[in-house]
Amino acid sequence: MQTIDDSLFQVSVDENGAKVDHLISVTDNYDYLGEEGTKEGTAIAFPVINHDNDWASKMPWTVVDKGDTRVSLTLIDTPESYKKFPYHFEVMTTYALEGNQVEITFFLKNSSHKEMPFSLGFVLPNNWPTEEGINKISLNNGKHEIDVASTDFKLNVEEDHVTAFIDEIKLEAESSKTFALNLTLK
């Protein structure tokens, strides 16, 4: 478990799946992801948003950079993943605290000599009332609020979670791209 914090928030990131397990307000010790035992944590989906080919949530990630207010984890293809998804790739996810925001960036590199199709998703558990706007979803339980915003991801409210996803697109051979998502905590 990796923990980053500043004067406002503490974020705990699990190396298994690079998911956020705790998102705690330092001022009132409130965990935005729920109380212990009832929380789900976030989830990352890659290379395909389905349970059979979603290595991001099943494989251990490697911590490649760590500071007080940021942590970067990477997932690199393996011989096992290559059998089902025949591409060489690297996904690096960085969680960084900036004021009252958690900035989440996804750096995706296609190391193959061919174009790589993929989907990328981020799931945030939610049982709060929501309000949808352009490139933003606001979650508000009356006492705490989270704004999920991105111009890279399509945002969607599901029954018990918010998804930020990029449907199947293709990344050129030997190229990379960065995608960003912001959580503003109030």
From TrEMBL:
Database matches in InterPro entries: Aldose_1/G6P_1-epimerase (IPR008183), Gal_mutarotase_sf_dom (IPR011013), GH-type_carb-bd (IPR014718)
Gene Ontology biological process terms, A to Z: carbohydrate metabolic process
Q: The organism sits in which domain of life?
A: Bacteria
What SUPFAM superfamilies does UniProt report for this protein, alphabetically? Galactose mutarotase-like
The residue stretches assigned to a coiled coil in this entry are: none
Pfam families, A to Z: Aldose_epim
Q: Offer an example of a GO molecular function term for this protein.
A: isomerase activity
Q: What is this protein called?
A: Aldose epimerase
Species annotation: Lactobacillus amylovorus
